[in-house]
Every structure is written in C-alpha cells, then in structure tokens.
Amino acid sequence: MKVATHQLRCTECGTRITGSAVNSIFRCPDCNGLYDVIYPWSSIPNGDTPASDSKLPNASALRWLWQERRTSTMPIDQSGVWRFRDLLPIVDNPENVVTLREGNTPLYDLPRCAKAAGIDWLLAKHQGLNPTGSFKDTGMTAALSVAAERKFEWVACASTGNTSAAMAAYAARAGLRSIVFIPEGKIAWGKLSQSMDYGALTIQLKTDFDGCVRILTDLVTRFPIYLLNSVNPYRLEGQKTPAFELLEQLEWQVPEHVIVPGGNLANGSALAKGFTEMHHLGLIPRIPRISIIQAEGANPLYRSLQETGGQELIPVKANTRATAIRIGNPASWRKALRALRTTGGWCEQASEQEIALAKAQIGAEGVGCEPASAVTLAGLKKLVAQGKITREERVVLILTGHTLKDSDFTINYHRNELFTEAENSQIDAAQQSQHAALRKPPVVLEADSDIVLRELEAHMRLTQLA
Ligand code: F0G
C-alpha cells in the first residue's frame, strides 16, 4: 500500500515531524501553526520543493490504476478516496481503512444556473451525494482510519452538523466511541438526527460553533480523545481527492475556476493541495483558481481581506441561516488564504437573500443542495458581475451538502416564511420577481378530481402568462 511514508509540516514555521509525534490539538508547539501532510514526492502549496532523492510516482500508470480499481469488488478500491491511496499513504495497513464507499460523486451541468450567472459553462460536483450526505465523508474516512490504526478508543469533533454526522457514522463502522459537540439550536435537524442515529454521544452546548471548538480543544488535552475537526491534517488528505476525481471526470481538462463555500476554511486548501499534487505529478498543465465564498453574516475571511489585506483574522459573531458555515473564528483561515494566493482565486460574500435565491435555482435544475453549498452560485454571480470570471471560462461549483440536510430551510423558502417582511422589503423588484417565479409552495385541496383539475387549469394559465 505504501508508496512513501509521510511527515507533518508546520504551515507557519516549516518544522517537520513524524505523524505519530503530533500533539492532541494538531498544532505546532513552537508557533501554533497547523500542519500539512507531506510526502517525499509532494510539492506543497507554499512552494516547498520535493526532496531531491524523492521518486515521483509514475503518473500515467497511476491514472490507469485509479480507473481500473473502479471495477474491483474490494471496498478500498470502491471508495472514491482510497482508490487514490497511492497519493495518501497515511495508514500503514490497508485493513485499518474505514470506508462507507465515499466519493465517486457525480458532476452535473447546470445550464440554467449558468445563464443566471451570465456564463456559458457551469458544472457542479455534488459532494452532498456522499454516504452521510456531505463532503465531510471524504475527509472522515481518511482521519478516522488513522485514529483506528493508532488504536484510539474515543474520537470527537465540534461541528455545525455535517462533520458530526460523518464522524458518528465512520466511528460506528470502526467500533470506536464518538462525542459530538454542537451549538444548541443552531444546526439543521437532519444533521442532529444523524449523529444520534449513528450512536454518538451528542452534546449540545449552549454556545456557538466557535464556543464548541474552545471546549473541545481544552478537553482533548485532558482526555485521550482523537480530535477529528479539520485542524486534523489527515481530514484534508481525504478532502483533496475530489480534485483528482473531478479531473478524471473532465478527462484531465482543467477548468478555469473551482468555487467552494467557506466556513472553518479547510476545504478550499484541501482541494488546492489536490490540484497542486496533480500539477506536480505532471497530470495537468496548470491549477484552477479556487475561490471561497462566505455568508455575509459569517464573513471573517472576507472582512480580513477587505480590512487588513489578509494580515490578520477579524473574528465575527456569526449569524446566517446557512448554519453549516455559521462560523466566526475559522481555524484554517491561513490555509485558506494560502489557497487563494497560490491559485489566484478570490473571496466573496453572499447575503441571505442571495443564498436563498441561488439554492432555489440549483434546486430547480433537479440537483438541489443545502444552503451553505448555494453560496457558491451566489458568489459566482458576483465574480462574473465584477469581471473576474468571463463568460467563456469553465467553472465548477463544489456542492458540499445534500438538500435533505436542511429541509426546514427549503420548506420555509417556498412558503415564503424564510424571511421577515422587513427583510423582504429590502430587496429590489427584480429579485422579488425572481423569488416569486421559483417559489413552489404546496397546495392543499379537497380530495376531489374536479377541484384538482380546476387547480391544474389555473396553474397552466398562470405559467403560460409568465
Ligand atoms: N458546506 C457545508 C455543507 C459544510 O458543512 C461546511 C462545514 C462547509 C461548507 C465549509 O467547509 O469548514 O472546510 O470551510 N461544516 C463544518 C461542520 C464546519 O462542522 O460540519 P469548511
């Protein structure tokens, strides 16, 4: 299984340590920096060069092998993460891999969303179609396999809901015990139900996500629990693999832009690492721009770039209906900044109304996603309007969560109960009519076919008029 052993490299001071030497909070004891996983062959996103004696894996043989594994009946071959295990040799024994056959997610074209954004070519890689309904599964299979191999009994995370759902499921598969810390009342019910269903000890703390992280960080220094938040660099090794898969799906044609939502700000850097490794191996001639979009009410990276040029983070008191990204003090902001700088991407923000509209537009293409994922389309519209993305450029949105994760949001939107009247009065007539055209509230009728027919005729007249 092992092509090469790995090390952890501090993203701030460059210190390298072995994987087993890392402390319980996954931070450098000298400078508090986060780590990257590095291999003898890998170039890392801040331009470090590979060791001179390192041997690059044979890229074309790997391409063939990755495809070949898709036809295998072995679980690790069927996994869309471990299929690429040659580029993430983080476990010593493949038997320790914990997989739910994550990855291998579809790539959809979104012609109507492309038109709404003012471009010709728009695709969505739907990471919400993973086993627990979010992109977190790709990272969780990686880091939880490491936890299992290192014989941890307990794993834990603080979460806005998706990480906890993924962790609870993978821990259950591995027979490990899991503790979930979530902000009370501030996550979608679908996600809360998942951690209970998968048997986690679910603790709702009377604080926000950032408060949950604080408590957990303290706890892991006092109790032998394996931390599975995205500060754990093994998570990102799994989360880099959708970049490989996307390139396969595009027959190794590189899109100009990839757009991700930003919350705790790890995912953009994971994808940047994936593309950088493909580039370094000679599989692609260039790296796409990776842009990160935040909700206006949870925009610490956006504000930091606007107000300090990215010199320091400006934490905010986060508030958005896109609860997955309701994060005011993101751990991986420096990694995100590095991803923006090395790929030439941008950071934008989207208002609550813009997020809701984008989500409805993605839903209306028969694809659907959770609110946090829809910031990508809302952000794309802004980047096009600013001239940063041009009509003919090829853009891929990363849809991070399944639409069923937060059905309350969708139902409230279509019933026109999501926003207050005051909020609705703040948007212009054009936006109002876009919303009106997309809203499909349920109609309650008597069980009488004449009545149903009359409703149908009225509906047809209305749509002909529109
Ligand atoms: N989209 C969804 C659906 C998410 O659940 C998250 C993060 C993000 C985007 C943002 O990704 O943190 O790498 O910038 N959810 C975390 C959680 C924080 O606990 O589930 P990021």
Characteristic key phrases:
466 residues, alpha/beta, six-stranded mixed sheet, four-stranded parallel sheet, 18 helices, binds ligand F0G
Condensed summary:
By secondary structure, the chain is α/β, with parallel strands linked by helices. It contains 18 helices and 13 strands.
End-to-end CA span: 59 Å
Rg, rounded, reads 22 Å
Count of individual helical segments: 18
Which structural category fits the helices and strands? alpha/beta
- Unreliable parts: none
- Give the DSSP E fraction (strand runs of 2 or more residues): 5-15%
Instruction: Report the bound ligands by name, code or SMILES.
Output: ligand F0G
Strand order across the largest sheet: 4-5-13-10-11-12
The average pLDDT score comes to 95
How many β-strand stretches?
13
Report the helical percentage: 40-55%
Any idea what the shape is? globular
Give the biggest beta sheet: 6 strands, mixed
